[in-house]
Amino acid sequence: MAQSSANLNKLGQPERVVALDGTINFRDLGGYRNKKGQTTQWRRIYRAASLGNLTVSDRTLLADLDIINDIDLRSPSEQQSYPDQSWDSVRFISNPLYPTTGFNRMLNNHHVRKIFRRRREIPKLDNPIANIYQNVLMTKHSQQEFAQTFAVLLGMSSEQASVFHCAAGKDRTGMTAALILLALNIPDETIIQDYLLTNELYDYANDHQAPTNDDIQQAVDQMNTQVGEALYIQGVLATINDGFGGMTNYWREALGLSMGDLKQFQKMFLQ
């Protein structure tokens, strides 16, 4: 796989944040340690905000990083109004996470959880945003789109990478990242920290500075992962872990993927 100096620090180690001129919050999901002591592979799966304003140098960098799949989680209208900029050898994949019809009903339906007849009860969440996240997890359309993202990632070779994104790289992207990390057995606390990093990166953008790995680690060390916006992604984790009995069950029952797929996914993206 090609290695770009823009994604390496002075020690030759990968950076969490890929510094681009035309977008922010473009980052690598590598380097996270799971419950078995394995680590997610660097330079394989990236998450991002909008890719509609990439510069020529940005596109050159993404091609150098062997990113061959651009998975756009935005709605068709967003994609048409503000299309992604492409780069060499990339495949654009329209994968709108939210339903294109009945969206408001999904946001306002606090009874979605009741349609599931399960041995485990889907947890009731008090936070309204966490409730929306939960409804997304339990909506058939969104489950199909989550499964499509996993199918794209499973289709890569060992030398290739993919990026998935929405508009700000927070809600739709954050839920997708959480499911990916859950499938790789990453601890809940780490998943929450990854989710909250979006806020830190927007702060850096406002100050017109690019954060280093040290900056990111300092931000993580200061996080309060028990209150505020952390509750949003905690609702995702509670729904999967308590409501479905873990990611293995959600993978099989909600996403319709096989256990062989899960084992292959872990083999591909853990070391």
Automatic annotation (TrEMBL):
Residue ranges of coiled coil: none
SUPFAM superfamilies: (Phosphotyrosine protein) phosphatases II
Gene3D superfamilies with a match to the protein in the record: Protein tyrosine phosphatase superfamily (3.90.190.10)
GO terms of molecular function: phosphoprotein phosphatase activity
Cited PANTHER family: TYROSINE SPECIFIC PROTEIN PHOSPHATASES DOMAIN-CONTAINING PROTEIN (PTHR31126:SF1), TYROSINE-PROTEIN PHOSPHATASE (PTHR31126)
Native source species: Lapidilactobacillus dextrinicus DSM 20335
Lineage: Bacteria, Bacillati, Bacillota, Bacilli, Lactobacillales
InterPro entries (alphabetical): Prot-tyrosine_phosphatase-like, Tyr/Ser_Pase_IphP-type, Tyr_Pase_AS
Protein name, as recorded: Protein-tyrosine phosphatase
Assigned protein family: Belongs to the protein-tyrosine phosphatase family.
PROSITE patterns: TYR_PHOSPHATASE_1 (PS00383)
Pfam families membership: Y_phosphatase3
